[in-house]
Amino acid sequence: NEDSQDDKTFGDLIRKKTNDPAENGSHITSEKILTLDARIDKKLQQPELKLAEQSSNANATPFSPFLESDEQSRTVQEENPRRMSVAPMRISPSHELISLLDHEDGSQEGTEVEEKDSANHAYIETFDHESNIAFDNYEVAASATNDDEMKSMSDDENNIAVALAIDDGTLDEVDEALTYDPSAKARIIKQMRTWVLLSLFVAIAAALTIGIILTRKKIEDIDNLKIDPPSPAPTSGVHGLIASLIKSEFGFDKDYGDSNAYGKALDWMTQDPIALDAAEKLAFPTRVATNIQSSLYDRYFFGLFYYEMSGRMWVNCSATIDTLNCSHLNNDLELIEGGSNWLSPLHVCLWAGIICDEEKNIRMLTLNQLGLYGTIPSELSRLKELQVLSLLDNAIYGNIPSEIGSIETMVDIDVHLNDLEGSIPLEFYDLTNLLAFNLGYNKLTGTISPNIANMTILKGLHVHENSLSGAIPTEIGALQSSLGYLTLSSNRFNNTLPDEMRLLSNLKEIFLDKNNFEGELQIPIAEGLVQLPINNNRFNGTLPENLFQLSNLVYLIADNNQFTGNISPDMGNLKKLSLLSLRYNQFSGRIPEELKNLTTLRTLRLHYNLFVGEVPSAVCGLFEQNLTQFYADCKNDLQRGDRYYGTGEPEISCECCTDCCDPGKQGECSKRGQNQIISLSLMNP
């Protein structure tokens, strides 16, 4: 089928070239025929081509396609001027060659062909039937007198190609046809297309497989609490990424030198396996990149906090302690065990003193009594979910960072028993969710701002043992529905207490002692009030009447003031009192018998006042209840040398007092029945 299709195609080409009668064989010269003969001769000399001589017609002159010279060509033309149509030779199925055929002499239609244009050109096509390989295509063309003769020649024999005259253009196309194999090109294109499709399929499959593996790996939770052993040393690129991220987040203006906490923390991060793992994941960002980056920053902050607080000197949970079970005190000073040491290759939520929620947001930082020494880094404000900050009883110094006031979730701040300086940052008064605020036992100065009115749910305010001064702002009355514990002891507060203090009806404890308050005592009617230390101030006048309505009061300490007048019989209403101390005032008159109702009383201190008369025997009957100590001015004032002896008349008569004191020589009391003077501490019980 391929052979016949090639024959047809080439025949059509020849016919197309000879359709014009003007050009039909009229201009073919011997020179042109020789040119084509030479090309054919070159092709036919290939070893694959085999030709047989013509032998079927005895009268016909044998014609050889190997035209080696013009003489042979002319001889053939002279002997057979009208029978030069030569069929292409083929190999039969039986592998025998078919002889070249000539037309009979009786043909009447070739007589008018001119002698000068009777040159013939042979084109022979040979095929290998078994291998189906076509070597080349050749064609023998001869001039014909008209189209009818060509048709007659084509119909005489099957598989006999028509010999036609061809021109110069045809020669070029025939030459191209001799070397072109369209079937071979098709096979190459088909093979190339197959390989391209196969390669594309393999590439897509590989990309999908790698993508699935990477996606699964990237969505792994970076916050896994336990990690595998450290991976091999990372490249400098990961180190650079960590440094770039940290400096960008915490500020390029920081000192990242080796001797600074910022630099030490950064150096640790470049060796920390969790930080390195996070950085590697950030190098190929996924949908969890934001969480990874946030965790990386939090980890750096705690490294910074550790170095800023001299972590190597901590009494426990330091990185120098190789343990995963260090103990610490929580914000209630309860011993907690099971935390890991700091800078360990575990998630920070497992480090001692760091408490996280289920989403691993840091909620509590409690590092109490660990020996922290340093300043609080302002970067603490990064912990936006922090609720409890407890750093009590350490050696922290410097100012309190105002940035902490931006942590809106904060509910409890306890940094008492440190060496903090400066004033209370105004930003702290914007912590509207704060419930407990303990700054006691520091070196703070300044005043309590009127902005305290913003802290409407504050339950405990403790600023004792500082150097705060000024008056208590009237805005404190805004806390009337929430404030339960107010500790202002040991400061330099002065002036009178505002009337708004009476509005704090939820108070349970109020410590006003050791300040410079003056004027009349202003106390709220708070049924739940238990403790009322007001000692060491300059309060004057009499005790307010609403004081005797505090039915749950346990401790009343009014020492070292300027109170005057008698003790009201209503004092007997405070039946839960355990301690009643009125020493170092100017109370006068007799001791009321109603004190006998204070059956829970353990200590009664009435000395260094102006009481007179005899202690009622009913009051002495309290010793049969719970009373163990009773101080009064029952000592005489006779002095011999450096000692007192009981030879004079006392200010008050007391048969049951455990200790007798001399108001003329304050600070010295003696046990009843003893002549030798003993020292009595003036400290609060």
Describe the structure.
- A hairpin with a 5-residue loop joins strand 7 (354-356) and strand 8 (362-366).
- Mean pLDDT is 73; it is low at 1-11, 13-36, 46-167, 169-180, 221-235, 638-647 and 674-685.
- The chain contains eleven helices and 37 strands.
- The chain has 685 residues and is α/β, with parallel strands linked by helices.
Helix-strand blueprint:
Elements lengths: L1 H16 L12 H15 L25 H10 L40 E2 L4 E3 L4 E4 L4 E2 L4 H10 L11 H12 L2 H37 L17 H15 L10 H9 L3 H10 L6 H20 L17 E4 L5 E5 L14 E3 L5 E5 L6 E2 L13 E3 L4 E5 L12 E3 L4 E4 L13 E3 L4 E2 L15 E3 L6 E2 L14 E3 L4 E4 L13 E3 L4 E4 L11 E3 L4 E4 L13 E3 L4 E4 L13 E3 L4 E4 L13 E3 L4 E2 L1 E2 L2 H4 L8 E4 L6 E2 L2 E2 L7 E2 L5 E3 L6 E4 L6 E2 L6
Parallel strand pairs: 8-10, 9-11, 10-12, 11-13, 12-14, 13-15, 14-16, 16-18, 17-19, 18-20, 19-21, 21-23, 22-24, 23-25, 24-26, 25-27, 26-28, 27-29, 28-31, 30-34, 31-35
Antiparallel strand pairs: 1-4, 2-3, 5-6, 7-8, 32-33, 35-36, 36-37
Helix pairs in contact: 2-5, 7-9, 8-10, 9-10
